[in-house]
Design goal:
By secondary structure, the chain is α/β, with parallel strands linked by helices. The chain is built from ten helices and ten strands. The protein has a single domain, classed as P-loop containing nucleotide triphosphate hydrolases (Rossmann fold). The longest helix has 16 residues. It binds adenosine-5'-triphosphate and magnesium ion. The site of magnesium ion has 4 residues, from helix 1.
Length: about 240
C-alpha cells in the first residue's frame, strides 16, 4: 500500500531522516519504535505531506505522492493523528469533527452521516458535542483526535504517540480502539515510545535510531529480540 524509498529529511543542516526504506501492506498494523528524537514524528509528518523529503520517493498504491500537500494526502485516504493530539481547543467537539470531513471534500449531508457514526463509536463525545474541545481531559482529547481522523474516512492511519500522557487505563482503551479499527480493515502505522504495547499489537515493526532504520521484523520477534529488550524494555 505504502512504500518509502530512501527517504532523507533535513531541518536546515539537522538531518532527521537518513535513507529510510519502509513498506506497509494493505491491512497491516506496522509499528515504528524509537527513543526521543529518533525521527518518528519527522517520518510521520513526511508521509502526511507536512515536510518534503530531500531524497527519496513515497508511493501510495504505486502512485508517487512525494511532495504532495497535506490536504491532498488526506483526500488520498491517509489520515494523520498528530503528536500532542492538535485538536482545535476553541472550537466545539462537533466543529472539530466537521472540519476534518469538510477538509476531505465531503458534502454537508455526508458529514452529518459520518458525525452520527462517530457519535455511536464515541458516546462521550456526543454528550459533549457543543462543548469547547479544550475543556476535554487528555484521554478524551485523544479520542476526539481519533474521531476527527475517522471523519475523513482514511484507509491508512498514521498515529503519532497516541498513548503519551494517558493513564494506564486510558492507554488500554486506546489500544482496544486501535485494534477494533484495524479489524475493520484500516491499515495502521503507529509510532510509539511505548515499545512493549505497540509491538504486542502490531504485525510488523521497525526500530528507528538517529533517523535510520536499524532493525525490522515481525513484531513478536522484535519483542523477543535481545537488542530491543536491552535498549527499550528495561533489559
Ligand atoms: N522543526 C525542527 N527544526 C529543527 N530540528 C528539528 C525539528 N523537529 C525535529 N527536529 C530534530 O529532528 C530530530 C528528530 O525529531 P523528531 O521529533 O522527529 O523525533 P521523535 O522520534 O518524534 O521524538 P519524540 O519521541 O521526542 O517525539 C531530533 O534531533 C529533533 O531535535
Ligand atoms: Mg515525536
Amino acid at each position: 500500500m505504502l512504500v518509502l524509498r530512501n527517504i532523507s529529511l533535513f531541518y536546515h543542516d539537522v538531518q532527521a531522516l537518513d535513507a529510510v526504506n519502509l513498506i506497509i501492506k494493505e491491512g497491516q498494523w506496522v509499528a515504528i519504535v524509537g527513543a526521543n528524537g529518533a525521527g518518528k514524528t519527522s517520518l510521520v509528518r513526511t508521509i502526511a505531506g507536512i515536510h518534503t523529503p530531500k531524497t527519496g520517493q513515497i508511493l501510495l498504491n504505486d502512485q508517487d505522492i512525494t511532495g504532495k500537500e497535506s490536504h491532498e494526502i488526506c483526500k488520498l485516504g491517509i489520515g494523520h493523528i498528530a503528536e500532542g493530539r492538535q485538536i482545535f481547543p476553541t472550537l466545539t467537539i462537533q466543529e472539530n469533527l466537521e472540519v476534518s470531513s469538510f477538509a476531505a471534500g465531503f458534502s454537508k449531508i455526508k458529514t452529518k452521516q459520518n458525525l452520527e457514526e462517530i457519535y455511536v463509536e464515541f458516546p462521550h463525545l456526543k454528550e459533549r458535542q457543543k462543548q469547547l474541545a479544550g475543556s476535554l481531559s487528555g484521554g478524551e482529547q485523544q479520542m476526539l483526535a481519533i474521531g476527527r481522523c475517522l471523519m475523513a474516512e482514511p484507509k491508512l492511519i498514521l498515529c503519532d504517540e497516541p498513548s503519551l500522557g494517558l493513564s494506564p487505563l486510558k492507554v488500554g482503551e486506546l489500544f482496544q480502539l486501535l485494534r477494533k479499527l484495524h479489524k475493520r480493515g484500516i491499515t495502521i502505522l503507529l509510532v510509539e515510545q511505548n515499545v512493549e504495547a505497540s509491538l504486542r499489537y502490531a504485525d510488523y515493526g521497525y526500530v528507528l535510531e538517529r533517523g535510520q532504520i536499524v532493525l525490522e521484523g515481525v513484531a513478536k520477534d522484535l519483542l523477543g529480540n535481545e537488542a530491543v529488550k536491552a535498549a527499550y524494555l528495561g533489559g
